[in-house]
Amino acid sequence: MGRYAVLVSGPAGSGKSTFCSALITHAHSIGRSVHLFNLDPAAERFEYQPSIDIKELISLEDVMEEMNLGPNGGLIYCFEYLLDNLDWLDDELGQYNDDYIIIDCPGQIELYTHFPIMTKLTRILQDQYNFKICATYLLESQFMDDKTKYFAGVLSAMSAMINLEVPHLNIMSKMDLVEKGETAEEAKAGRRREMERYFDPDPLLLVGEVNSKTNPKFHSLNQAIVQLIDDFSMVSFMPLDVTDEDSVGTILSHIDNAIQYGEDEEPKEPKNMDTGDFDED
Ligand SMILES: Nc1nc2c(ncn2[C@@H]2O[C@H](COP(=O)(O)OP(=O)(O)OP(=O)(O)O)[C@@H](O)[C@H]2O)c(=O)[nH]1
Ligand SMILES: [Mg+2]
Fold first, then answer.
1. What is the pLDDT of residue 112?
2. Residue 276 within a domain
3. Is the CB of 242 under 6 A from ligand 1?
4. N or C, which terminus of the chain has less Cβ within 10 Å?
């Protein structure tokens, strides 16, 4: 087996840590061993104890206090410190030579879209440590209520995807909140079909409402951006309902597929092969 990593990214509060826990619970339930790597220097509570924790190297609270920095500047400082202290990462990762690691990232999207920090880190994991990496980007289902917000979310997902340059899966999280209160009639009325338009962004859905809310001088720009997203089929989302194990399982199998997990595993010999202890019936 090789080394595999899932990068769980997305805006603040989009459900990254909850998704990490759901993935770990599911992996354990099917007998797979996975490890949590907490990459958020401000994280406080964990459902599963991380095997690797950036807070053992540096914590945001200490940085803010000692360097007199605000939360965002402090976070950038933490990551620059990590990149300057790769020996620590080397020691920590050295214990997981043949493993599957789930990396819970901080929610500041500047880390993926404005600064090359996460890109540098994924490159290091790939090139120096031979990890096969799949990035996931979570956007919460409430974004579907407001099309301009959704449009901005699609662009941020695309920006993260283009910057990270690894196999990428966009996830629409907190789908349990959408389904809640939905009556059978509503479902029949095509609510689900309507949602499909958000999972695979429909250019008409995006541009129509976004243009109705923005200054006419931006209409052609909106149209051009939507066309770009559509022409290259660059962004689509998979729905995630953490309360449904099948939904978590489906996402995990897409991630596995993206990083070819298990494809280079040797076939296992049946247990009784070397003892010659075969059933004779
Ligand atoms: N209903 C519902 N609530 C969720 C789900 N996922 C997360 N939440 C809630 O959303 C809030 C944020 O969840 P987290 O998992 O901490 O989100 P996060 O992306 O890790 O947040 P940061 O690390 O602060 O950026 C918490 O109150 C969770 O209980 C979900 O699938 N369904
Ligand atoms: Mg979190």
1. 77
2. no
3. yes
4. C
